[in-house]
Amino acid sequence: MEIVLEGLDARHRAAAANGPLALQNLSLRVKTGEHLAVIGPSGAGKTSLLQVLTTGLRPTAGRLSLDGLDPWSLSSRGLKGLRSRIFYAPQIPPLPPRQRVVTALSSAKLPELSTVASLVNLVRPRFAQESYEALCAFDLGEKLWLRVDRLSGGERQRIGLAKALMSSAELWLVDEPLSALDPKRSQQAIAALVDEANRRGVTLIATLHQVEVARQMFPRVIGLRDGQLQFDLARESVTDSTLQDLYAQFEHELEQTTANSHQEDSLALPSRSAHVIACR
After folding, report:
1. Rounded to whole angstroms, what are the CA distances from 77 to 72, 81, 82?
2. For a disulfide at 134, which of 28, 112, 165, 249, Cβ 3.0-4.6 Å?
């Protein structure tokens, strides 16, 4: 999916009509199939940018075009159709705690299902094999039939990413996907996401606090600060000096990105229980 932003302003949903802007005069072009990392200190506008791209947050000025379409000039049916082509993974995945993992993953298929089929899927999951293969990409195959409330925070975050692999969306928007993961898991998770996006030709935009992951895994990196675009560079052009300027007065955040101390469960290989079918 191709994205064009021109002179875009936006406010947080909870902001007053005359409150400060979360995004200011933002212009950006992203080609179909391109992969882009968005970095910047807290409050830079990274999440607001993704919310605008999901069409969940309407700009107060400027223009947004998704594959040549202005979302807010579409009919309700047309907007629903456009949104079905977009996958959004928030930092905290909205996974019902008493739901089984296989059912939670199947929710990525809801745009393709009728109401009746969606309800039947809650009782008899239709996508067990596909769900298992998506989990295998994140070393979670053995979690397929567990309830969500039996999982660690890091496991829940990886399941939120596995939902992208279940989706047929053309645009993947991923918000801070590594916040609950240790460095080893972070590399594994982002590599699985990027590899599958490459294979499908999906446009991928991820906000990241881990600047080294952004420089290693994404060919293009943009820096936001105070809702404004500070740079839009190829990863090899994002120097330490560039980062110091972007994170000036927020140096502690930049230091934390290279010293992530989050802990998660030890690595577990997928189980070959009777409940699952082996990955291809």
Report:
1. 12, 6, 9
2. 165
- In three-state form (DSSP H/G/I as H, E/B as E, the rest C), the secondary structure along 84-97 is CCEEEECCCCCCCC
Contacts of 190 (CB under 8 A, 6+ apart): 177, 178, 206, 213, 217
Degrees, nearest 5: CA angle 41-30-167 = 90
203-207, strands of its sheet edge to edge: 86-89, 171-175, 203-207, 35-39, 220-225, 228-234
Q: Which two tokens stand for residue 218?
A: 């994404």
pLDDT, tens digit, 9 for 90 and up, residues 232-244:
999 999 999 999 9
Are 185 and 157 contacting, i.e. CB atoms less than 8 angstroms apart? no
CA dist 212 and 83 (Å) reads 31
Q: Which positions ≥6 away from 148 have C-beta within 8 Å?
A: 95, 96, 97, 98, 99, 100, 101, 104, 156, 159
DSSP conformational letter for 11: -
User: Token pair for residue 272?
Assistant: 């070959």
Q: In Å, what is the CA distance from 26 to each residue of 13, 52, 109, 212?
A: 18, 11, 32, 24
Tens of pLDDT, residue by residue over 147-168, are 999 999 999 999 999 999 999 9
DSSP 31-72: -TT-EEEEE-STTSSHHHHHHHHTTSS--SEEEEEETTB-GG
Cα separation, 1 vs 55, whole angstroms = 14
Q: Residue 42 CB: number of other CB atoms within 10 A?
A: 8
| pTM, rounded to two decimals | 0.88
